[in-house]
Write a structure and sequence with these properties.
The protein is α/β, with parallel strands linked by helices. It contains nine helices and seven strands, in the order H-H-H-H-E-H-E-H-E-E-H-H-E-H-E-E. The protein has a single domain, classed as 3-Layer(aba) Sandwich (Rossmann fold), CATH 3.40.50. A seven-stranded mixed beta sheet has the order 3-2-1-4-5-7-6, sandwiched between helices. Strand 1, helix 5 and strand 2 form a beta-alpha-beta unit. Helix 4 packs across helix 5.
Length: 214
């Protein structure tokens, strides 16, 4: 079970894009997609988050194969490739995968909830700023099913003794708890939430670290 500090609580009042758009592809298109993919600031932020995620992944193999699930324009994947890892970059929005020359990142156009890979393929999985598009309403049955599929799929395609790190932007603590409950109910993952700067909203970063023990 992924427990959270009882004293820790938050509720983000500002609406994020995933609350205003039904699908991620409804938001990331046209000028919005171009501005996002061209943003040096977003690139720097995602690189910083990726460095932190790598600390949590604790990958031992120098040539590890890592899946970047929901890779967007490929900022995290490009950084991981630069420092020597083998990468598969997956995203549901094909325009993202064609924005930069990322053929060496093995780009795959697919839904991260239904990844098209064989069992025990990856040494690690990373996902930056994507999970809030999958699960953002605890009362939505379809979102429950998609998160269940994502959890089981990640468990299946991950090698034994490997880890997943998911950084995301939940609306509140209740959402985090529900995510943890769904994952532990439907897989044998163990894990925890790691929260950097928990009491500073603008600097707060939330990571879900889960492990496949065998």
């Amino acid at each position: 079970m992924m427990n959270l500090d009882r004293e820790f609580n938050f509720n983000v009042k500002r609406k994020r894009p995933e609350e205003e758009f039904e699908k991620v592809s409804d938001y990331f298109k046209g000028d919005v997609l171009v501005q996002y993919a061209n943003s040096k600031n977003i690139m720097r932020i995602q690189e910083k988050i990726t460095k932190r995620a790598l600390e949590l992944l604790n990958v031992k193999k120098k040539d590890a194969l890592i899946l970047d699930a929901g890779c967007g324009a490929g900022f995290a994947a490009m950084y991981l490739k630069e420092i020597g890892y083998r990468i598969v970059a997956l995203d549901i929005i094909s325009e993202f995968l064609g924005f930069y020359e990322i053929n060496d990142l093995n780009p795959i156009n697919s839904d991260m909830c239904f990844p098209p890979f064989k069992p025990s393929t990856f040494d690690a999985i990373i996902s930056i700023s994507a999970l809030q598009w999958i699960f953002r309403d605890i009362n939505d049955k379809l979102m429950h099913l998609k998160l269940k599929s994502l959890s089981k799929s990640f468990f299946r395609i991950l090698k034994p003794k490997a880890r997943v790190v998911i950084q995301f932007y939940p609306k509140n603590k209740e959402l985090m708890e529900r995510i943890g409950k769904i994952i532990t109910e439907h897989t044998n993952f163990t894990g925890e939430f790691i929260i950097d700067n928990p009491h500073r909203q603008k600097k707060r970063k939330i990571f879900l670290l889960i492990r496949k023990e065998s």
